Amino acid sequence: MPRSLSPFRIRSSGLALVAAASVTLLAGCTPGPAEPTGSDAPSGTATASARPTDAPESTAPAEPATPFAIDCDALVTADQLYAFNPNFGTDPGYEPSAANVVAVVEEDEGTACGYLNQTSGEVIEIAVATPTATAGEARRNAAATTSKPVPTYGTPPEVEGYFLQAGGTGEAQVFHGPYWIVVDSVAIFEPGDAQQLVAAVLGNLAAA
């Protein structure tokens, strides 16, 4: 851009010629603006042309889980717990620890309860959730893949039962209607050890 004229007059034409020549030389040494290339196009245009076949991202929200809450004394009543083993009672300091029990609470917004053996200190974890149809199907498939079916928990397809014993811990998983039930404890060694508790929970959920 040409510079504006100074308010001072140039007194000598010779000086004017020198100044003009200097400006010409400097102009020849200064690099001009870079030639525009295809990559210098505005970012919005470049992005649009770089991925013309991209489909718009889905904005549909994921299907939310339906929270399920129940009192631990209602999930397994005091009488049912006593019939199972008189040494067990509700654990006031219980925190979920088994992997699937934690998943019931954190992923599917269910309820988990702990029942403590006052003599041995063993804890039985029982958790229930009502996962979404997609999540519930995934839970069933995982149980069928990793555990053994247990027909004594109920008659499929109304009730699907599975059992796994690993690392000294027994885990029963039961699917009934919208419910996913998990019973986990070192006090459970075989499917029959959890059967009475499973029956109690199934009966109480029907009335819940």
Topology:
Layout: H1 13-29, H2 43-50, H3 72-75, H4 78-84, E1 88-90, H5 99-106, E2 111-117, E3 123-129, H6 133-146, E4 148-149, E5 159-166, E6 169-176, E7 179-185, H7 191-207
Notes on the structure:
With 208 residues, the protein is an alpha+beta fold. It has a domain at 72-207: Protein Transport Mog1p, Chain A. 36% of the residues lie in helices and 20% in strands.
Top CATH class of one domain: Alpha Beta
From the alpha carbons, calculate the radius of gyration and give it in angstroms.
37 Å
CATH topology-level fold name of one domain = Protein Transport Mog1p, Chain A
Shape: globular
The ordered H/E elements are: HHHHEHEEHEEEEH
Report, as a whole number of angstroms, the end-to-end distance.
Answer: 83 Å
**Main sheet summary:** 7 strands, antiparallel
Helix content: 25-40%
SS-based class: alpha+beta
Superfamily (CATH H level) name of one domain: Mog1/PsbP, alpha/beta/alpha sandwich
Beta strands, count: 7
* Strand line-up in the sheet with most strands: 1-2-3-7-6-5-4
Q: pLDDT under 50 segments (min length 5)?
A: 1-56
Q: What count of helical segments does DSSP give?
A: 7
Query: Which CATH architecture of one domain is right?
Result: 3-Layer(aba) Sandwich
Q: Output mean pLDDT.
A: 79
* β-strand amount: 15-25%
Oligomer class: single chain
